[in-house]
Amino acid sequence: MGAGHAHPLYRDGTSRVHRLPAETKVIALVTFVLAVVATPRETFWPYAAFAAVLVAVWLVAGIPLRWILPRMLIEVPFVVLAVLLPFAEGGERVAVAGLHLSVPGLWAAWGIVVKGTLGVAASLTFAATTSSRALPLALSRLGVPGLVTSIVVLMIRYVDVLTAEVRRMRMARLSRGDSPRALHQIGAIATGVGGLFLRSYERGERVYLAMASRGFDGRVPELALAGGPARAVAADWRAALLPAAAAVVIVAAAWTWR
């Protein structure tokens, strides 16, 4: 958890996107996602335009498609939910391959899948080009409350600790004959999750008491995050907000020509 700490999704690089201050990328990400969410789902072409914007950023940042696609599997639960909506929703029905599906359910499923996919892809782009050490500093510069910034800092620092704890607990269960895929082991898995929660809670208390005894007052001073990039200048904001501006133009055109 030293200076070289980096999250698993970060791709080390020297591209223009990598070098941009993190606060500019945070604003660009939020603007892009809001534009995608605000786009009417009944209009199809804007989503292709959003995808083109993301592909252009990937080209500039040197992020290959083979890196992005496997990590987008995180949205599978939402896709499963979307697949069920045409069967569960009411309203007008339409026959598709012998199945009577709900028209509102189909639109809802389309909206969830396309907007969720674009949101996940944008978030992965941000994660791939922004180190974990730069994020707290960016939030501080953007005026995010100190308590929230502190939570983010501690989460980044200790997520690897909890991941290692999960691995050790799983290894201990397997060495005692546990079969994680067996249905009758669900009780043991639930007990393990509860144990992990208690250990994490107790660890958090100990860390907080140790920090409080050393004068921690809930704020993360910028000096504590030394080594981060310099503050963004006008050229940085223009470069970072270019994809976000394109997304705003797309959503405005989508509503105008709807």
TrEMBL record:
<protein>
    <submittedName>
        <fullName>Cobalt ECF transporter T component CbiQ</fullName>
    </submittedName>
</protein>
<feature type="transmembrane region" description="Helical">
    <location>
        <begin position="108"/>
        <end position="130"/>
    </location>
</feature>
<keyword id="KW-1133">Transmembrane helix</keyword>
<dbReference type="InterPro" id="IPR003339">
    <property type="entry name" value="ABC/ECF_trnsptr_transmembrane"/>
</dbReference>
<feature type="transmembrane region" description="Helical">
    <location>
        <begin position="142"/>
        <end position="162"/>
    </location>
</feature>
<dbReference type="InterPro" id="IPR051611">
    <property type="entry name" value="ECF_transporter_component"/>
</dbReference>
<feature type="transmembrane region" description="Helical">
    <location>
        <begin position="182"/>
        <end position="201"/>
    </location>
</feature>
<keyword id="KW-0812">Transmembrane</keyword>
<dbReference type="GO" id="GO:0043190">
    <property type="term" value="C:ATP-binding cassette (ABC) transporter complex"/>
</dbReference>
<dbReference type="GO" id="GO:0006824">
    <property type="term" value="P:cobalt ion transport"/>
</dbReference>
<keyword id="KW-0472">Membrane</keyword>
<feature type="transmembrane region" description="Helical">
    <location>
        <begin position="44"/>
        <end position="65"/>
    </location>
</feature>
<feature type="transmembrane region" description="Helical">
    <location>
        <begin position="72"/>
        <end position="88"/>
    </location>
</feature>
<keyword id="KW-1003">Cell membrane</keyword>
<feature type="transmembrane region" description="Helical">
    <location>
        <begin position="239"/>
        <end position="257"/>
    </location>
</feature>
<dbReference type="InterPro" id="IPR012809">
    <property type="entry name" value="ECF_CbiQ"/>
</dbReference>
<feature type="transmembrane region" description="Helical">
    <location>
        <begin position="20"/>
        <end position="38"/>
    </location>
</feature>
<dbReference type="Pfam" id="PF02361">
    <property type="entry name" value="CbiQ"/>
</dbReference>
